[in-house]
Amino acid sequence: MSSCVSHHHHLVRHGGGRLRAWAPAPARARPGPAASFARRRVARAAMSAEAPSGVAPAVPAAGAAVLSEMVEDAAVWCAVHGLVVGDRSDPRSGTIPGVGLVHAPFSLLPARFPMPFWKQACELAPIFNELVDRRTRQVDDFTARLLEIHEKMMEANKKEDIRLGLHRSDYMLDSETNSLLQIELNTISSSFPGLGSLVSELHRTLLKQYGKVLCLDPGRIPRNWAASQFADTLARAWTEYKDDSAVVMMVVQPEERNMYDQYWLVNHLKESVWKTLAQVEAEGKVLTDGKLVVDGRTVAVVYFRAGYSPNDYPSEAWEWRARLLMEQSSAIKCPSISYHLVGTKKVQQELAKPNVLERFLDNKEDIAKLRKSFAGLWSLDNEEIVESAIEKPDLFVLKPQREGGGNNIYGHDLRDTLIKLQKEKGESLAAYILMQRIFPKASLTPLVRGGVCFEDLTISELGIYGAYLRSKDKVIVNSPSGYLMRTKVSSSNEGGVAAGFAVLDSVYLTDETTRCRVTSDNIMN
Question: N or C: lower Cβ tally within 10 Å for the chain?
């Protein structure tokens, strides 16, 4: 009889023991009353969500004991391997490293993802990298403060001989069309290459221990080298600068609970410093030869993990002066102001227009691949589409020029906002774009947050990282560089992990053509 038994059969759990982090662990002692209570609490929490009518639970009641052990093993793995974030309940966790740590929220099992769509997403990464590089030669009039800096660079005929981009293109599988559609292209502060890589290893480790019971193969979770590949590209950019005494400067927010994701990149770099925008303004200067010096150190590469949101410019003076100072220097920017602008929603919408891609790319096959991934995108000067969105708001998303999660507008709020914008007219219309709403399939998933496992209907979003480095006419790096899978409760409109809307996940590749969730239906006592 196969060891993979359906949840209608009774199954004695195979093997035993804890997950092994680095070496075989000694035999585990029988848990005391407190530990037993904690496990029962996790198991009850895991079964607390009621499945909608007609939807099978991801975790049957008979498997709750094994599930609770998986949750505990996973939490220990997170602590041992640094899959952690700052605890929001501790005010010091965003400023003092090592204080107030909790495991990053994660899905207990990986999300099934069809191999054909995975290959499609990976193939798109270098094409989007090239598009970003070519699109910077022409930027539309939007995002006024960023554009003001860009125009100053254009007036000064400022040339960037070395271009560096660490991007992430986000996708969902649309159940209506069974196609892979792009959500957005991130060109600044593409987060979670560090922690996202760790979740892939967490899931591989869990499936090595429990895979036979679950009938799941850990080899179907693709390796994720996002952190090391991003760090390698930053290091190669540093080499191109040709100054052994210079450093890589990471521009960060004053309070950053996701600092440990950033540390995973720093660990791979030879020499790096962290500075806020305000510190750069206070400590920085550009020498007559163009070198950027901050706190007495020459900066070869500026890597932005801040500066993508208006919240990063609270003083309306110091931070913007810092941004201009860095842009005026010869330091390699990741991203430059022009790369940053290409990642805005308005440029995404403009690129989706007929015959626009042809202005920047020559390869017809590449153009066709990109266009196939575009969802419907429209400016608000398209009156017919705006009226359709007012009439059927659930079929659209209204997106402002903002990054970081929590900004998109849906449903009745979308209708009310469009009616208000129609009355205001003028420049307010240019601050938004309309996008076709994508409807991925939802599935029941065990999610773990704060040490407690709960089950809910979820949908997932796949991000493919891309690294790009060009020195004058020579392209040094242009490749996909790992991935990020995020899963959120299907009732939530937003999807940011750092913003608290989603959990980290990984990919389980399948040969099917539609995406569904890996469930733990085969977990038994």
Answer: N
Token pair listed for 260: 């440990």
Of 69, 160, 281, 403, the active-site residue reads 403
CB 124, CB 478: distance < 8 Å: no
Q: Active site residue: 257, 333, 486, 517, which one? A: 486
Work out whether the CA dihedral 304, 169, 119, 356 comes out positive or negative.
negative
CA–CA distance from 289 to each of 48, 286, 293, 328 (Å)? 64, 8, 11, 11
Among 135, 399, 437, 517, which one carries the catalytic annotation? 399
Cβ atoms within 10 Å, residue 277: 27
The answer to whether the CB of 103 falls within 8 A of the CB of 84 is yes
Task: Report residue 395's pLDDT band, with 50, 70 and 90 as the boundaries.
Answer: very high
- The one catalytic residue in 135, 163, 168, 415 is 168
pLDDT tens-place string over residues 440-465: 999 999 999 988 998 999 999 999 99
Assess contact for 504 and 520: CB atoms under 8 A: no
Strand 452-471 relative to strand 162-174, pairing: antiparallel
Q: Is the pLDDT assigned to residue 42 strictly greater than 80?
A: no
Determine which of 270-284, 435-449, 504-518 has the lowest per-residue pLDDT on average: 504-518
Is 168 catalytic? The answer is yes
Inform me whether the pLDDT recorded for 54 exceeds 70. no
Catalytic, 186? Answer yes
Retrieve residue 500's tokens: 């608290």
Identify which of 478, 396, 481 has the alpha carbon closest to the alpha carbon of residue 437.
396
Q: Which of 275, 333, 345, 515 is catalytic?
A: 345
Higher pLDDT, 132 or 43: 132
- 391 exposed, middle or buried (CB, 10 Å; 0-12, 13-18, 19+)? exposed
Residue with tokens 């030669």: 137
Query: What is the arithmetic mean of pLDDT over 327-347?
Result: 93
Q: Report the C-alpha gap between 299 and 274 in whole angstroms.
A: 11
Residues in CB range of 50: below 8 A, 6 or more apart:
none
Q: How far apart are the C-alpha atoms of 303 and 334, rounded to whole Å?
A: 5
Task: Tell me, yes or no, if 403 is annotated catalytic.
Answer: yes
Q: Which of 27-41, 110-124, 331-345 has the lowest average pLDDT? A: 27-41
Q: Which two tokens stand for residue 399?
A: 């997106």
Q: Considering 69, 72, 184, 350, which one is annotated as catalytic?
A: 184
- Shortest CA distance to 210 belongs to which of 330, 92, 95, 109? 109
* Annotation says 404 is catalytic: yes
Catalytic residue of the set 404, 451, 496, 500: 404
Q: What is the DSSP letter of 435?
A: E
Q: For position 405, what pLDDT does the model report? A: 61
